[in-house]
TrEMBL record:
Ion transport listed as a keyword: no
Name used for this protein in its record: LysR family transcriptional regulator
SUPFAM superfamilies according to UniProt: Periplasmic binding protein-like II, Winged helix' DNA-binding domain
Residues forming coiled coils: none
């Protein structure tokens, strides 16, 4: 068994195609086939079965895929430690990011500082929702991901808090109040986010027995702002993504704090901090230094 064979196995499992894997790795299709057959012969197990033009993992293949990813992750960490000891600070890091709060508000600032300090480390970003980030961490698809804390499944590192606020059309009488209690939204037309914060908004309404009339569901923050600006309903959103220069363009949108105050903690997570690569550790240290 070689790490090259494991690399090929993991990529075939992801792409479900020998041809696509060969093209991605710039090798022949026969080399891909030989690598899989060599693993199957050594392990005396069938790893894949053909389904029409695609390859599907067998039950054994699914079980061993996770272990293959673990081995590749440990190997990458080892190589980066070697580079770090030689003073090269080389390597790569795969980061998972979610939503406007992490992808627009946190990540660019962290990446700018990180790449200035470690220009030889390659950075790859995958964007998904909260659940996808967790899955990618568990499957070792990414090295580190932004998550909402707490999350007992991972080793986590706190960064910042993001509070929730109400967005109100200027024509609503509530817009004149100093703050908004969730119960104040009872029976009013409401625009529900379907992005990562939906679970938290629903929990806020449920905890305070608030039952607004949910008429619209949107995943994009700018669409929600436009709908509020058009006087079509109120909403509750995470404040971090609400840049002042954006709201200035929507004079009919009034932002008000919630009472009681409700916020969520955002941080970074890894599957196991004892197996962190130097690049991953450096990224977390840079991020924490910016948001202490």
């Amino acid at each position: 068994m070689t790490f090259t064979q494991l690399d090929i196995f993991v990529l075939v499992a992801e792409l479900k195609s020998f041809t696509a894997t060969a093209e991605r790795l710039n090798i022949s299709q026969s080399a891909v086939s030989h690598a899989i057959k060599s693993l199957e012969k050594e392990w005396q197990l069938s790893l894949m079965s053909r389904h029409h033009t695609e390859f599907e993992l067998t039950e054994a293949g699914h079980t061993l895929l996770l272990h293959a990813k673990e081995l590749l992750s440990v190997n990458q960490t080892l190589q980066q430690h070697v580079s770090s000891l030689r003073g090269l600070h080389e390597g790569s890091i795969k980061i998972g990011s979610f939503g406007t709060s992490a992808s627009i508000c946190l990540l660019p600032k962290i990446l700018e500082a990180f790449q200035q300090r470690y220009p030889k480390i390659d950075v790859y970003i995958d964007e998904g929702d909260d659940k996808e980030i967790s899955t990618w961490l568990l499957e070792r698809k990414i090295d580190v991901g932004f998550v909402v804390l707490p999350d007992e499944r991972f080793d986590t590192f706190a960064l910042t808090e993001d509070r929730f606020v109400a967005l109100l059309p200027s024509s609503f009488p509530l817009a004149q109040q100093t703050f908004i209690h969730p119960k104040d939204l009872d029976h009013l037309p409401f625009i529900m986010t379907t992005a990562g914060s939906q679970t938290y908004v629903e929990k806020i309404l449920q905890q305070h027995q608030s039952k607004p009339k949910i008429q619209y569901h949107f995943s994009q923050l700018m669409t929600i702002i436009n709908m509020v600006n058009a006087q079509l309903g109120a909403s509750i959103v995470a404040e971090m993504a609400l840049f002042d220069e954006v709201l200035e363009r929507y004079p009919n949108v009034i932002k008000k704090p919630l009472r009681p105050n409700v916020s969520r903690k955002i941080g970074l997570a890894v599957k196991n901090k004892t197996h962190m690569s130097p690049a991953c550790q450096a990224f977390i240290e840079v991020a924490q230094s910016l948001f202490d």
